Structure formats: structure tokens, C-alpha cells
């Protein structure tokens, strides 16, 4: 009996932490939709919005940076789902025995089910933001979809130019700034790909995907492999017929 008790006592604080991140994802979802509304609403064009509301654009970038950082850590830590599965099995077993453990007051069965769906995603935070962006577009039918996609493609372009232009790169004082720009660039590409009818990889896309992938591949592989994987596995249109063989080859 001692080992299960030790395992339970070890896993409960971890589950409480997972709950906090799950609840934070819901706050991020609301924040993202508010930011999209502020950065796309008439009468200004996306570029004007990004120039006029630089503080909001920076907050949008910070959310994307956190999201990609979190998901990279999640993908490399399978223990997260293993621990959570153990927790769910234990509370299910105790319910069958008409017992309730103190930890269930914080993460009950209903909450555990919602968290399980969240952490089952390969990139849970990114999935949350992608769904939020898609929902924002579908609910704002009077707002042209181009206002949203142009905002995202403009941000991707700004990040790419900063990463590939020597005059900008020399201002980066450390690798963290480079990584910040790369994560934001990949984040807006993925959101664009989820809401644009033909996605980010088509020839008609306003995002220079070849340039974006090239600038990623110029960085040390250990710092960008997670970002390249995000483009490979969390976009919607990479495998469409409209995607050129050259772009697919770049991501292999």
C-alpha cells in the first residue's frame, strides 16, 4: 500500500499544476480573440493597425511565443500524460469503491475529462489558439476574412524580414530574441493556415513560405526542430495538392 500512496502524493501537485495551465489556456483563448478584434476592426488596414497598436501586437506576439514554448516542452515530456492517466485511473477506481480523495476537490472527474482532451493534443496550446482564431472568423461574418489573414501574414513577413536581414539581426543581442521572432513567425503561419481557405502553402498565399522555412533551417537544428515539426504536423494544408513539391521537400 505504501508505494501507491507515495505515487499518489507525488502526482497530485503535478496534476494541480496541469490544471493551472489548462485554465490559463482558456484565458489565452479569450485574450487572443480580443486582440484579433482590436487588430482587425475597421476602418484601418492590418498594417495600419500594427503600426498604431504596437503594444497590442507585442502582446499577440508574447502569447504566440509562450504557446510555442509550452507546446515544445509538452511534446518532449511524455510523463505529463502518463502522470495524468495514473491520476484519472486512481479517482475512477476510488469512485467505484465509493471513496473520494482530497485531491478531487481541486480536479474532479469532470475537470479531469476536459483536461484529458486538452493534453491529448500534440500541441494543446496551439490547438486552443487555432480554434479560437477559426471561431473568431466564423463568428464575425461582417468582417472580411482578409482582414484577419492579412494581419497574420503581415506579422509573419515582419518576423521573416527581421530574421533574414543583416541590419536587423545585428541588433539582436542574444539568441532568445531570435527564438522569439521564429516562434511568433511560426505561430502566425499556423493560425493563417487554419483560417485561410487555401492555407499558407499555396502559391496564392501572402506568406513567403519558402523564405520562412529557409530562415528557420539556417538556425541550429536543436533550436528549430520543434518549430519545423509544428509546421509539419499542426498545419491543415501542407499536404494539399496546391502545395508545391519544393515546399514539401524543404520540410522533409
From TrEMBL:
Lipid bilayer topology: Lipid-anchor
Pfam families in alphabetical order: CYRIA-B_Rac1-bd
Gene Ontology molecular function terms on file: small GTPase binding
Chief place where the protein resides: membrane
GO biological process: regulation of actin filament polymerization
Compartment(s): Membrane
Keywords assigned by UniProt, alphabetized: Lipoprotein, Membrane
CYRIA/CYRIB Rac1 binding domain mapped to chain residues: 7-248
GO cellular component, one term: membrane
Name of the protein this chain belongs to: Family with sequence similarity 49 member A, like
Source organism of the structure: Oncorhynchus mykiss
Gene field: LOC110496750
